[in-house]
Amino acid sequence: MSLLLTGNSASLSEEELDEYSDGTVKLRNSNIELMDQDILYHLALGSESHDLQEMFGDVKFVCMGGTPKRMENFAHFIMNEIGYKLPAGTQLQDISAYSYRYSMYKVGPVLCVSHGMGTPSVSILMHEMIKLMYHAKCKDPVFIRIGTCGGVGVDGGTVIITEDALDGQLRNSHEFTILGETIHRPAKLDKKLARELKSLASADDPYDTIIGKTLCTNDFYEGQGRLDGAFCEFSENDKMAYLEKLREHGVVNIEMESTIFAALTHHAGIKAAVVCVALLNRLNGDQVNAPKEVMNEWQQRPQILVSRYIRKILTHNGQLKSLFGHQGSIKSPRRFKLVQQESQAHE
Q: What is the distance between the alpha carbons of residues 214 and 136, in angstroms, rounded to a whole number?
C-alpha cells in the first residue's frame, strides 16, 4: 500500500496554522509532552538536562552541511560576517562533541550543524533539530542546507539554489516506510526564499548562481548513473541518455540529501532552502578532478551567498551588531551526565 500526501492533505489545516501564528515550531507528536525528558541522543542534549531555551532560544538560522569540518569553517566565517564577538578567553566549541556523530556550533542567532551524508543521516538529525527548535521555543527559524553536488549541464563552481527537490523517479516527494506502509510526503522548499537568495548573487561574483530542480538519490554511484563504482551494469550511452532526460526535465544538479531535508522542514512548517555548489559537470565525466585549493574555494561560494542573506535579515531587524552568545546552560548536572552516557551508548 502506498499513500501519497498531496494538495490539501499535505498542507497545514487552519487550526494548525493558528498554532504556528506565534512563530514557534510545533511538533506533530503528542507523545513528547508525556515524556519525563526528551533526550536528543545524536546531539548529546536533553530537554531536562540542559536549559535549551536559554541555549538556543535566540536561534533564527539553522545552517547544515555534510562534514563537521565544513560547518566548523562556516561557523568561523559567519562569526566574522555578522560581527559576533566571543567573550574574552573563550572559543567556539562543538556543542554536540559528546555525541561523536554530528557537530554543532552556535554563533549568536546562527546554528551551524553537520548532517552527514545521505538521507538516513539527514533524517535522524532533522528529527532532533526540529525537536530542539520546539524545546528552545525558537520563533520563525530558517533552515538552509549548504552542500556540494554534481552539475547536469552546469560547470563546476556554479552555485545552485534548489527550486524543487526530486527523488530518483523524478517525483517532488520523499518516500518513507512507516510501520510497513509506504508514505510519500511533499518535498517542498520555500520558493520565495529561493528567489530572495538568488537576488543576493552579485554581478561581481566570478561565477554563476542559478535556480533549478535538484535530483536527490540514495546512492553516489549507480543511483547517479556513474560508470566508476564497484558495480555498473549499464553503458555510457545509457548513462548519457539518462542525464539528458534529467536535463530535459529541468534538473541542474544531483545530490543525496534534498528530498528528506525538504520533506521534513515542510512537514514541520519551517521555511527552508538548499544551496549547493557543483563540483563538476556530469555530462563531462564522473570523477571530481579539480585541485584541492580550487575545491576549497568553490565550497565557500554557497556559504558567501547564505551569509549575505543572514546579514540582510539581521540588518533589517536591527540585529547586525556585536553579539555575545551563550554557549550553554546546564539545568541538572545529574541529568546532563546521563544524557552524555545515553548518547555514547547508542552506537
A: 32
> Could you report the per-residue pLDDT of 105-163, keeping only the tens digit for each?
999 999 999 999 999 999 999 999 999 999 999 999 999 999 999 999 999 999 999 99
| CA–centroid distance for 100 within its chain | 19
> DSSP secondary structure string, 62-108?
EEEESSHHHHHHHHHHHHHHHTB-PPTT-----TTGGGSS--EEEET
**Length of the chain, in residues:** 347
Torsion angle of alpha carbons 123, 126, 130, 133, nearest 10°?
160
CA nearest 142: which of 60, 261, 235? Answer: 60
Dihedral sign of CA atoms 65, 142, 344, 86 in order = positive
Q: Exposure of 116 by Cβ count < 10 A (0-12 exposed, 13-18 middle, 19+ buried)?
A: buried
**Long-range Cβ pairs for the range 225-228 (8 Å, 24+):** 225/282, 226/286, 227/286, 228/286, 228/287
Question: What whole-number distance in Å separates Cα of residue 221 and Cα of residue 225?
Answer: 6
What value, to the nearest 5°, has the Cα angle with vertex 74 and ends 68 and 80? 145
pTM over 0.85: yes
In this predicted model, what pLDDT tens digit does every residue of 10-43 receive, in sequence order?
445 444 443 456 899 999 999 999 999 999 999 9
Between strands 142-151 and 61-65, the pairing is parallel
Residue with cell 487552519: 14
Write the burial class of residue 199 (CB in 10 Å: 0-12 exposed, 13-18 middle, 19+ buried): exposed
